[in-house]
């Protein structure tokens, strides 16, 4: 069994009180068994997880993030900025838990905490810097950010991940066309697109992305989606089963790069790991093997 001197457990304070109590009841005793000192921080407001990680993260051997993709996104933004970065564990507690799925972490809280206490697999994971921010799973604009923007908070709490699909189908009917220019070390692409997606992880809205995407290869996977409509969406989802972009999918371009500069025709909503930002230019750079995670598999 793994042993640590100090562990920081960050949990989403916005989770329902009953739900949070159950999660903590399952998570805290096993964590106490493997450390000398366990600090529990319940977030109080947006940005709280990032602030705590940035200010105190380097003081701990292990930081455990209990929550969904939003809490993970905040925490990773705090931890990625540190010179001395702790090991990271994840206890899924959100709607889709996309980054946890990318790391093959069980969705069951008991199994996930057992993974941390036994620590069978560890892996150094790429993180992508986007301007002054960081993302672990994906960056997107167009249809993907429009879908996030359209999700009703009430329906999300009731319907869970189904709300992502409902929003996607509503958004695709009137998706705007974006003028984009993507410049990488090897390519310059100028297109009118309905969606631009930059993937590091393998899941969005609980939906698997192409299996060719690797979370530790030092490359980001850029998908330039040229046209809208249900046939194209189906094509994009079918790609996940093969991991390849064949000639018949010429409406979707796939580029791999270490760095990319993206220019949009105007300010657009930008989605990073489910959190919305806004801008017309974005410089992306892969930070290879930047954070070390406890994972469910090393494949």
Any guess at the CATH architecture of the largest domain?
Answer: Sandwich
The number of helices is 9
Helix content: 25-40%
- Overall pLDDT metric: 84
- Examine the coordinates and then state which fold CATH places here, giving the name of the CATH topology of the largest domain: Tumour Suppressor Smad4
As a percent range, the share of strand residues is 35-45%
Q: What's the story with the biggest beta sheet?
A: 10 strands, antiparallel
How many domain regions?
Answer: 2
Query: What is the N-to-C order of secondary-structure elements (H for helix, E for strand)?
Result: EHEHEHEHHEEEHHHEEEEEEHEEE
Rg result: 19 Å
Spans of at least 5 consecutive residues whose pLDDT stays below 50 are: 151-166
The coarse overall form would be elongated
How many strands appear in the DSSP assignment?
16
What is the CATH domain class of the largest domain? Mainly Beta
């Amino acid at each position: 069994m793994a042993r640590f001197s100090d562990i920081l457990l960050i949990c989403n304070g916005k989770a329902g009180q009953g739900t949070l109590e159950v999660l903590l009841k399952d998570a805290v005793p096993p964590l106490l068994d493997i450390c000398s000192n366990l600090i529990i921080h319940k977030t109080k407001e947006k940005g709280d997880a990032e602030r705590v990680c940035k200010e105190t993260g380097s003081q701990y051997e292990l930081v455990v993030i209990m929550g969904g993709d939003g809490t993970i996104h905040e925490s990773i933004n705090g931890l990625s900025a540190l010179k001395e970065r702790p090991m990271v564990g994840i206890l899924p507690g959100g709607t889709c838990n996309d980054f946890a799925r990318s790391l093959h972490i069980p969705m069951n809280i008991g199994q996930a905490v057992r993974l941390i206490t036994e620590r069978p697999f560890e892996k150094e994971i790429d993180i992508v810097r986007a301007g002054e921010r960081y993302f672990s799973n994906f960056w997107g604009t167009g249809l993907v950010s429009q879908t996030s923007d359209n999700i009703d908070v009430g329906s999300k709490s009731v319907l869970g991940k189904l709300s992502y699909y409902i929003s996607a189908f509503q958004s695709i009917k009137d998706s705007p066309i974006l003028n984009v220019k993507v410049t990488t070390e090897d390519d310059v692409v100028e297109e009118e697109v309905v969606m631009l997606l930059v993937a590091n992880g393998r899941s969005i809205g609980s939906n698997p992305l192409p299996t060719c995407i690797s979370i530790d290869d030092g490359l980001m996977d850029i998908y330039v989606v040229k046209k809208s409509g249900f046939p194209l969406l189906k094509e994009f989802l079918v790609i996940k089963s093969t991991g390849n972009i064949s000639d018949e999918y010429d409406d979707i371009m796939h580029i791999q790069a270490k760095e990319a500069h993206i220019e949009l025709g105007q300010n657009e909503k930008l989605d990073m790991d489910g959190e919305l930002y806004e801008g017309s230019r974005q410089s992306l750079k892969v930070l290879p093997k930047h954070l070390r995670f406890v994972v469910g598999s090393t494949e």
